[in-house]
Design a protein that fits this description.
By secondary structure, the chain is α+β, with helices and mostly antiparallel strands. It has a 4-stranded antiparallel β-sheet. Strand 2 and strand 3 form a beta hairpin.
Length: 146
């Protein structure tokens, strides 16, 4: 479980993962060494898995984003999973229950590129693709307090 001070630190880092120890300490009411110790403990407990940067795919030319539900054909599950893992345009993959086995997110530069990627698995799985029009809620952390 995390206390109010840990929650405060996590909320600050969720907005700016580059916040300095001094900034974290000022906002959480702690010294820099105390913040450092709390961060160390949060990492050791697995609450914080890493500090990251958010990249805008459109700035790299990836103008289309799609969600694809994938249902491997009998006996093709491991082959399809390997194809997903080896295709860098797939940026997220969830293995799910229900009729489909995978729900993936991918970024592409064109419909032709999307077709090419889907065609690589078409003989191994059934797919259902949806183009993302907007993302009202970007990936975010779950609530810190229960």
């Amino acid at each position: 479980m995390i206390d109010d001070i840990d929650q405060c630190i996590l909320q600050i880092l969720a907005v700016d993962s580059r916040a300095s120890l001094k900034e974290l300490g000022q906002q959480a009411g702690l010294s820099s060494p105390a913040v450092s110790e709390r961060l160390r403990r949060l990492e050791e407990r697995g609450v914080i898995r890493g500090f990251t940067v958010e990249i805008d795919p459109s700035a790299l030319g990836y103008t289309l984003q799609a969600l694809v539900r994938i249902r491997p054909l009998p006996g093709k599950l491991h082959i399809v999973q390997k194809l997903i893992e080896e295709t860098p345009e797939f940026t997220e993959c969830d293995k799910v229950t229900g009729e489909d086995c995978f729900v993936v997110r991918l970024f592409v530069r064109s419909i032709d590129q999307l077709d090419g990627i889907i065609d690589r698995i078409a003989d191994k799985a059934e797919t259902n693709t949806a183009i993302v029009k907007s993302q009202p809620i970007r990936r975010r952390s779950p609530p810190f307090a229960g």
